[in-house]
Amino acid sequence: MTAQPIHPHEPERVARNAEGIAAALSGERRMEFYRELLAAAPEEAEGVLRRWWCEAMLDTDPVGDRLTASALDGTLPTTAVADLVARRREAGLPVE
Fold first, then answer.
1. In 21, 51, 59, 94, which residue has its Cα 20 to 30 A from 15's Cα atom?
2. Using CA atoms, how far apart are residues 77 and 19, in angstroms rounded to an integer?
3. Does the pLDDT value for residue 19 go beyond 90?
């Protein structure tokens, strides 16, 4: 199954490379990112970059604090997985 962003970013807030990711992270998290990337085997580096890019996107989300607060106080709207699967099927999109 693939996922598309709810609100696409053009251009993206964080470049999809080590330099862009590091620039978006705060000092301590930036060092954690570099430590993990430098310790990764070549075949693991892509996964490290992908995970930290997601972290950097969350860190730079302009409404991130509001979403976090909504999630913590239980007011964040949710959707059942079964409803999402049904919508994808209706749209002729893959669900596996």
1. 94
2. 34
3. yes
